[in-house]
Amino acid sequence: MKYTISEIGKIVNASKTIIFSDDDIRRIYIDTRQISIPEHALFIAIETNKNDGHQYINEAYQKGIRHFIITRLQDDFIYADANYILVNNAVDALQNLAHHHRQRFQIPVIGITGSNGKTIVKEWLYFLLKDKYNICRSPKSFNSQIGVPLSVLNLNETHQLAIFEAGISLPREMSVLEKIIQPDVAVLTHFGTAHSEGFENDKQKLNEKLKLFKRSKINIIQRYHNDYLQSQSFPKNFICISEQEKDDVVIKQVVKTKQHSQITLKIKKDEYTFQIPFLDDASVKNAITCFVCVYYLDKNYVNEIIAKLEQLPVVSLRLEVLKGRFQSSIIADYYNSDIDSFETALSYLKQHASHEKKMIILSDFEEMKDAENVYHKAIQIIHQQEISHLILIGEQWQKFLYLIKIPTHHFLTTADCIENISSLTHLFFNTLILVKGARKYELEKILEYLELKTHDTFLEVHIPALWHNLNYYKNLIGKNVRMMCMLKASGYGSGSIEMAYALQKFGVDYIAVAYTDEGVELKQANISLPVMVMLPEKNSFKDIIQYRLEPEIYSFDIFKAFLDELSKQGIQQYPIHLKLDTGMHRLGFLPNETDELIQWLSHTNLIAVKSIFSHLAASESDEHKEYTLQQIELFRQLSQRIEQALAYKVIKHICNSAAISRFPQAHLDMVRIGIGMYGISDNEEEQKRLQNVLHLKTKISQIKHLKKGSSVGYSRAAILDRDSKTAVIPIGYADGFSRKLGNRRFQVKYKDKWIDTIGNVCMDMTILDVTNVDVNVGDEIIIFDSYEDIKRMSDTCGTI
Length: 800
Known about the structure:
- By secondary structure, this protein is α/β, with parallel strands linked by helices.
- The protein has a nine-stranded mixed beta sheet with strand order 9-10-8-11-12-13-14-15-16.
- Helix 4 packs across helix 9 and helix 9 (281-297) runs antiparallel to helix 10 (302-309).
């Protein structure tokens, strides 16, 4: 957007404008915490029941803002060098500005409403269409009376398509949003009980949502498995989706496998089949809605998106999985509490099989007309799950406790629960806990007790990016080739248990670890995937057998020792993996040892060979391509000889991450993915297709102002050549932040600014030169959050 102050004054019907300089406005802030670029920015002082934006005008001014929309003039926030637009209502002004801005664009606009699923449908449509269109979309879940206009104001001349959410909780709200969005395509994703308390009945709420469809040309109603919507009549130009033959889009079949849902639907005379990497019913409905939306928006593009549907990303919403105290994990969803979102959360709980025990902490549902039916349904759903214990909060639950057949603690308020929670500690040990409730119950206060407190320096693992990368490699290898993921060195430092849960949920076939204790840890955490141990030590054989780990056998010495242990325990047909040395010359049986190996294999029934594999020495190198091809051919010959001697089929694998794209002829039965799943590749073209999974962040511990000539850090390695400001961050070489990164050899990030290290890196601290950067104690510093950052760090350290 780009408007002058005087233009904005006219657009919003200002009662008064005080103009110091008629500057251009290019961005808007309503929250001083979000101010990052104050130049050409307008701060709107919005008043709500809980807060008043006028209280933050001074702070906004101190951060560089010089343009304000206000509803009252006060001496304590009027500055001579600032511009002011005085209006009767700041929200109305924001909405009027957005309405005016929307009029300037003639591109297709998709408007999405519904009780649930708005954000997921929006994000999936963006994923499916972003290669064809430059898209403007609502950030996060910006769908309110304030969020929608802020979203629409992001439209600019480069955009070819826009996708906006519209959420309501009261009558007459949608009419306002419809004027701002003016959709060409209107979509109702789902109709349920969420946000019902502001309406007299379902009919009134549905009619209010349908006001979004006032002028749209394409109108899509998702009513699959929705009895209420299927009982309603809609205008003939509405496109209804259901399992019923009378509707415009008929869902013929949904087949769920271990990893995917396969969906077949009929539109007019055309029948389409596609897969999505999700099993829950909500995802199935949302994916179908996206497909239908693309079909009617641009039918010629449908075949393009069928392949993309198999790669749909996980959309991170309000469901968070947190590490808890007492060896627990917590699924946190305390934004709203209606029966539909509760079912979705329970589906997520069921799929997240990380602990033997499962518990639910649940508040009263939001107020609704048919409360008794809702509570009865919730209890029925809970009884269908394997829940070990319930903690219920709220007055309404008290009426239905007599119906609950599993151990339950009930508290009238969240405060009561917190006061007594320490006496319930025994229930939380090694438990997966769903914390679900309406915002007004402030269940986040319970999380403060349950959540494991973390260090100021932390590594974020972005699971949606991980799944994106795995899907990239899955598409390269095809459906018939298996996938083994390497979790050596605590999952490359990302946490082996947490990574294993994510990989298991994605549906990989194998996990590999370096040492036995790593495998034991995974099995103790209830990881059901088979685990290969690459460096099995003789003194760990008992643990390998006890936890049903699968050892890599790479020498006759380790082979004989393992056979002896199996013989002592009277075990037969134990799974092992044979490592062949085809040119790496590290571990493995050499080619001239193949005959002897076959003899050993032929004369024992104590083991069963699960796989034969080898390691490529230089698969990433063009210079050594011929050597790699020789390794692959040698491996084919040796593994075929061994397989023939065994007289049964075994898995064969030689490709690591780098080889998957470079040597597709060597995919064989399985590939091994290590650093590639974290979004790192030596291939420049491939790197563009991968997403960075790991973000390393820390926070400023202390800030000092030092005089010119002062020394900084050990050995006085840095002498200041000017008066300077320094900041200490709690990360050092004990955390893997190498001493080679000190003394201005590496830069970290604060927002959009680069900051030099200064002085020597200490064991657990590093000093930064923040002389020209406005930072405070507690501000977040990014060590790396992209491939480019990681590459700079590795290059500086002379490593990978």
